[in-house]
Amino acid sequence: MSKFISLARRELIEHRTGLIYAPAIILTLVLVVVITSLGFGSGMTNANFGGTGNSYTSLGDLLSKLSESEAMVRAGLVGTFLNSISSPAFLILPFVIFFIMLGGLYEERRDRSFLFWKSMPVSDTWEVLARLGAGMILAPLCFLLIGMAAQVIALLIFTVLGAVQGGPVGDLWQVGTILRNWIHMPLFFLMWALWSVPVFAWVLFCGAYAPRAPFMYAILPPLVIMLFEGLYLKTTHFAAWIGIHLTAMPVAEDMAQDIIGGHTVIRGEDGFNFLMSSVAHPDLGVLFTSFGNPDLWIGLLVAAVLVYGAIWLRRYNS
Amino acid sequence: MSSHTTQVTEPMVVDAQGLSKNYGKFQALDNASFTIPFGRIYGVIGANGAGKTTLLNAILGLVPFKGEVSVLGKNPAKGRDELMKDVCFIADVATLPRWMKVNQLLDYVEGVHPKFSRQTTMGFLARTKIPLNKRIKALSKGMVTQLHLAIVMGIDAKLLVLDEPTLGLDILFRKAFYRDLLEEYFDQGRTIIVTTHQVEEIEHILTDVMFIRDGRIVLDSPVDVLSERFVELVVDSRHVEAARALGPIQERVLLGKNVFIYDGVDRAALKPLGELRRLALADIFVAKMSGEKA
Q: Does residue B104 share a domain with residue B26?
């Protein structure tokens, strides 16, 4: 266990820029923008919540209107608001993971520090899994925790500002919705990690293999395959495969299916209500529907082969 | 005299039989066989590319190889991680991760190594000027080596392998490095294997040497035996023919005098011919390497 913690801490230190500084800086900027625009009213005239076209004079005013809506919509709006605070960071998450995967096993060879790591009683399997875990588990976890912190900070500041402006701030604290989203998000990222791991395992493998310019090794072969497939077969299966896995498309589709249920045509207001209900009370079980999807398992198999290759390379590539 | 023959039943730190390794067509190690007992300081000496590092890497389980190698009774090719609980190595200068702070590195070693004593390492660090809260990249080259040595000394290992650990450091650091190693770390329960280009600096601490050329071990002997075996004779001009007849492995002319080097020739026979001199390890190495026809 202490070995596991030590490896995780090492990864956190090595990749502190991507794992901590990057999301922290982005979310600080988001908080500054959101608080100055909403909290002090400058963004109020443009705010158009729930498609109602209403405009508000202050945060307190907004909160008052909020308290008039149904409980489910209220929870959904607060949930949406909080999710929109933390989600900008997730846009860079795939890039952060990409560079963690590419860098770990390449840099340790470049600066020769792998010779030190190898003098420790830690197997090559553990080492490679630590690198993989840094990207697929540690990175989403850091982003989630920093995102939650940003949400709490936003809630606290809005509570104070709302109270000063005389709004019913109690409605902000949709504890049930907040907690359920805090469970939903990690589970979503777990599924996303399982779907996208073959793509990132390829990057990890390139980091272990490339004698130099690992970026080129990671990027060029897939591009060449796409090019030849396009030229000779006139198809885009390979690009689609990467896209589906990288975005965990099937998970998103399952969630969408779950939200709209059996409806085929959705009008504006229904759509809004579906959305609010899904945010207020996100369904956890539906996240795991794609365990029945053979594409997921094929991807995991591909990832396992690539990770095994990276372990083999680290053992003998000295 | 030689414990090689008397300690057959005693367990060896390293037991290598028919160790071979090739990189493509290049034969880095060619059927090397040797044993290394406990409580020794072994110097592995050879030119660049002779196979020293390959030999050490095979012992450490860093490269696959052909042949039978057992290190502390274990096969290094399988389970390097298990082996590293009892074996430690410094494979080059400055292999410590530059992005880590000294404290963080000690945390890491403490977390993964069951035989690491932080207290011991801190004791050594207290004698240096190494700042604990600085990143390793902020330390001088000498400090990084001191830090690495301090970590190694905190690990209760049975075998320590050093491959050019002091390359590029100034002489004060080099001297201090080997002094600390000898005085504070080495004991009968441990074995050290070391390679270096500065043979003369470690000569006095070695108990055994192994000469290696083109992947072959050309000499493997305790140091005290070597200084018995090899001798330099500075000959008066009238005895040159007689000296030549005794089969020197090297002959040269130095400042007008003929100088011969002998391997295993009775000193009583040499004495009357001129002045006998003790040979330094480096001279023996050169004589041995240039004398042997490849």
A: yes
The mean pLDDT of A194-209, rounded to a whole number, is 97
User: DSSP 3-state assignment of B234?
Assistant: strand
* pLDDT tens column, B274-288: 889 888 888 888 888
On whether both B118 and B193 belong to a single domain, the answer is yes
Residue A42: what pLDDT? 53
Cα distance between residue B84 and residue B116, in whole Å: 12
Task: Tell me: do B106 and B208 sit in the same domain.
Answer: yes
End position of a domain, from candidates B158, B190, B214 = B214
User: In this structure, are B196 and B263 located in the same domain?
Assistant: no
> What are the phi and psi torsion angles at A169 (to 5°)?
-70, -20
- The verdict on residue B219 lying in a domain is no
On whether both B182 and B231 belong to a single domain, the answer is no
pLDDT at A264: 67
Quote the minimal CA–CA distance from A308 to chain B in Å: 16
Tell if the CB–CB gap between A122 and B82 is shorter than 8 Å.
no
- Tell me which chain A residues have a C-beta less than 8 angstroms from the C-beta of B92: 112, 115
Smallest CA–CA separation between A90 and chain B, in Å? Answer: 26
Tell me which chain A residue has its CA closest to the CA of residue B53.
A318
Q: Residue B167 falls within a domain, yes or no? A: yes
Residues of chain B with pLDDT under 70: 1-10, 291-294
Of B84, B99, B100, the CB nearest to A121: B84
* Main-chain dihedrals φ then ψ at residue B190, nearest 5 degrees: -120, 160
A20 CB-side CA count, 13 A: 7
Domain count, chain B: 2
In a domain, B220, yes or no: no
On whether both B205 and B137 belong to a single domain, the answer is yes
B221 assigned to some structural domain: no
- Out of A2, A119, A124, the one facing B111 most closely (by C-beta) is A2
ipTM: 0.88
Task: Give the range of the structural domain holding residue B284, as residue numbers without chain letter.
Answer: 226-291
Predicted local confidence at residue A53, as pLDDT: 52
Whether residue A9 and residue B104 make contact (CB cut-off 8 A), yes or no, is yes
Read off the CATH number of the domain in which B203 is found: 3.40.50.300
pLDDT digits (tens, 9 = 90+) for A143-163: 999 999 999 999 998 888 888
